[in-house]
Structures are given as structure tokens and as C-alpha cells.
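If you are new to this repository, start here. Below is one unmodified record pulled from the training split, so you can see the exact layout before writing a loader.
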Amino acid sequence: MKPHYLIGIIASVLVLVWACAPRPVVKPGPEMPEDAYQLFSKAEQLFAARFYDDALPLYHEYVRRFPEQTLAPAALMKVGIINGLTGDYESARAAYHRIATDYPASPFALDAMVEELTTYYRQGRYRDVIGKAPRILERLDSRSHIFRIDALLGDAYMAIGSPIDAVDYYARARRSATDVEQEAIVARLKEAIARLDSEDVAILLNHPDKGLPMDFLLFQLGLNYTMEERYDDALKILREYIERYPAHENRNLAENMIDEINKNAVFNRYSIGCLLPLSGPYQTFGQRALKGIELAYSQFSSGNDGPPIKLVVKDTSSDPDKTRLAVQELATEQVAAILGPLVNVELAARQAQQMGIPIITFTQKDGICEIGDRVFRNFITPRMQVNAIASFAIEDLGANRFAILYPNETYGVTFMNLFWDRVVELGGRIVGVEAYKPRQTDFADSIKKLIGLYYEIPEDLKPKDELDTGQPDDDAAVQVDEKTVRDDEQPPSEEQPEPIVDSEAVFLPDSPQIVGLVAPQLAYYDVKDVYLLGTNLWHSDSLIKVADQYVQGAVMPDGFFARSSSPMVKKFVTLFEETYDQTPEFIEAVVYDSAMILFQVVRQPHSRYRSEIKDGLLNLDDYPGVTGVTRFDANGDVVKKLRLLRIKGKKFVELE
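And here is the target side for that same chain:
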């Protein structure tokens, strides 16, 4: 129902009443001239037949010619009604106002005041309704008029988004409503109550009022608590509701909610599901992630007393159908939460959300956390990388002018757009942007375009020498001809234009293999003494091997640095190398952190429902992980500061 529901009903009823009720007995005589009788009678007939456009001018004429006649207020009332029906609220209001001021003793005066207020509502001037209604209420003593004003105020407060005030006025209206009016006003009252927060509903329950539906209020509080996932409170209220109102219309719904809450409480709070591609095309990454989880499990179990954590690992094989089946199996095994997957993430996240299972995903995919409130992400994203590298370049390096050289495919275009936007946000300038084809090996054209060497300088823009300043004399012409003959076999070489390197830094979002080809070519075309900025893909020893001297000083972000000076990272790396005889990378580290976070949350004593595990993740207070201090924002997306690395000699070093 819309906020104007009651007003529409009242307006329709009013028109029906005025159109169908017996018309006043109008007879010509000493008190009613014949022409007045004829005019009013004709207008009434047209109004009754709903020929409003024809009736309106006749009512106007009647009021103009016979303002002292007793039916003048009735004619003005019809003028107001017709104008209101056609949307001319200003004219309608003028007619109603004239009745109240010129004919205050008329039986139509009070109706006119109510209708005048109604025109404000129908114009959307809700605050005018709220401001003017109290003065009108002071003059009313009719039950029907008071009911209409109270109902109108309720609608006005609903329209401005104040349901608690609307409830107050709807309750007042209900106390003065007739049996016919009860159903409509109770429906409006319930709609307003349904928009209240739990605190307001609880207050109303503690202050009984015969105008309030106490049964519905109790049910609504149970519903609110359920929606807020305050399950213990919800169970208490819903059970009280069923006990007090066993025959109520919402009893079955309350019982269903109780069943769902009880189902939600049935899970193994110490059981963690893991979705990983342990076979198939991405099995290498899945196996690396599993090592991170296993190390976290070993570390957490050895340092904590209490019930042991149980890991339930499912192989997705990077296959959608197997991923879907794996999520269903984890739900059947009643896991408390899920780690993963690495592939087919959106599919798994949607399933977990539908089943109410919190899930920490590992993906760069945009919008993954928008799937629902149970979906979290702990991974390095393009936006995080761009924010880190652009902020560092501008705020720490003092760079202001940037060029972007990028591959014309999804990865490159994404980073190019994000970097450009971030630089502008920080007050920097993009002075050049050039793309190249993926898998290209010769970047000469793109680099030349970036530094102004690609396009030939038009003749009219070239500098003029002395011979070009005017028509040469004969001696000059002879001299030129002689020189041309003498130097015929060794023509003078044209002077090459200088490159225009207007940037202080070049951002190049591509793989180390491609960057290893581009960097030497940048140097060849004298693009030197600029900062080279990249993405986490640059964090590879292969880049230094391929382009050693050309990438010295290059800066890139990453989520993990195994040679960090951080004591926590050192301890993690040592344990990992001792356990698996290999050095961990970002995948192992971020999965390790995520597992440790989840183990910690499920061990909290109040984690009796999966919703409380979700809340525990949302309320995570800067967890000190090996991939950096970690927390989740209100949408479940990770918030952490990335590490910045620089190439120095034959190795990467961490920037503070």
C-alpha cells in the first residue's frame, strides 16, 4: 500500500457521497430566485453524471451571481472537489478556504477545512499538512473529522519517513474509527509498524494502547530480531507470541521462523570447509593454498586448548559442477564456514550465501562481496595495488606527471583506468597514455607515440634556415649547386628530433616477461631518469634476470614479501620452509592468514550461530597477519595496506 492509500479512499468516498447522495431540495420562491434554482439544479445534474468539466463553470457562475444564497457554500464545495479531482489543488484550496472564511457558520465549513488540508497532502506538501493540522484539530469536535485528520497526519509522517509518528496518529485514528473504517486504518497501522526498528517496537510493547495491535507488535518484534540475526531474542519473542496469541493470523509464519532459527543453530562450529582445486588445470595453486591452511591448522592447534578444529577439504577440480556439489556436501556436513575457492568463486559464494554459510573467498573479481552478507574476500585486488603505488609515487616520490604504457586487453585496460583515476584523485596528471597489442615484442611505435617521435613534423612547423627565409640570389644558387655536385656521394644527414619525455614516472601493468622487453626499449629511446611503476606481477626474479640494469629502482606493490624484516613474517617463512622445504608466496600466505582468522573467530565462546561467525569476521580488529594488518569492511571486503617493493641490484627490497 502507498502512503496515500487512505486519502485515495476518502477522496473516492467523498465524491461518491456528493455524487450519489440526495441533492438538496431546491425550489424557487422568495428565498430562491428562479434563475438560481435553474442554475444550481443544472450544475447538480451534471455533477451527478460526472460531467465535471461542464458542471464546474456553472458552480462558479452560481457563486458569482448568488453569493448570499444558502447553497453558495455547497457550490464552492463542489468547485473544490472537481478541481481536486483534476489536480488543480491551488484552485481547490482557494474554494475550500473561501468556505471556511466567508461562510464559517455553514455546515460545510468543517468539511472544507479538512479538504483544504488534504490538498496539501495530495500535492506532496507533507510538512505543510503536519504544520497546519494541529490548528484545525483544535476547532473540530466531530468524530469523523478528527478521524480524517489523524489518518491524514499518519500518511504525512509515513511519506516523510517517520513511521514512529505515523503509528501514533494511526492509533489515534483507530480509536475514533467506525467499524467500516477499522480495516483500512489497521492495515495502515501495520504497515507503519513493519517499518519500525526493534527499539521502537519494544517501546510500544511496553506502553499498551488500545489503538495499537499488540499481537502484531509482538510478532513484528520477533520478525525484526530474526532479520537482525538476534536469534536468541527472536526465539524468546516468537515463542511468547505463539503462547499469547495461538489463533493469530501469523502463527504459522512464526513457527516457520522458529524452525529456521533452530536449523541455523545446528552446525559444527569447529568444522571448517575448504574448497580448493587440488586437481585439474589449477591444481598447483590449490596445492599451495592447502599447504597454507595445513600450516595454520598446525600452528593454531598447538597453541590453543579446547575442542579441536576439523578441516573438511573438497577438491573442486576447477569445475563448476564439482564446485557446486562440493558446497552442497559441506552444507550437509554442517561446516561452520568455508575457505576458498580460487576458481568458480562467484558460483560458490552464491551457494554459500543461500545456505547461510560464511565464506572467505580468494579472488580479484569485482563485486564478489555484493553477493550477500555472508561473502568475504581476503585477496589482493587491482584497486588496492593502484591505490598503493599511485599514493607512494605522488606522496613519497614527489612525482606529479605520469605516463601509462599498457597491453590492450582486460588486465591492462583495468589497471590503466584505475591508475588514471587514482592519479587524478591525488592531484597528479596523466601526460601520456599508449596501448600495445598483447604478446607484442616490438614496442617501438607505442614508445615513439608516447614521447612524440612517431608522427612526422609538418613542414610549416619545422625551423627555417637562412636559405628558406626568402628568394636566393644567383650567386647563392650557384654556390648551392656547386656544393651539391661536390658532396654528391655524401649527402648531409637530417638532424633527428629530440624525444619529449614529459613524465616523471611510467606505469606499465604487464607480466615480467613483457616488461623485460619493454624496459630496454624505453631506455633506447632515451626514456631515462623516470620511475618505473608496476603491479605485483613484477615481483619475480625473472624480471631482474631479463632486464637487470633497465629496471633498477622500479617499484611495485605486493601482498606478501618472504624476505621481509617483520618478525612475524620471518617466523612464518621459517616454519613453512622447515615443513615443506620451499619458500611460501602470496597464495600460501594469504590463505594461512585467512585460516588463522577463521579459527580464531569460531573459537569465540559466543559463536553459537553462523550469523555470529559472520559478525565476528566483520568485527575483526586489525588482525596482525603475515600479509599485513587485516580487517573487513562493512561489505565483507578486505582492508589492508599492501607492501611496496623496489628492485635494488639483483634483489627486491621492501620499502617502509
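Two things worth knowing about this chain: DSSP finds 26 helices and 15 strands in the chain. Residues 1-29, 460-493 have pLDDT under 50 and may be disordered.
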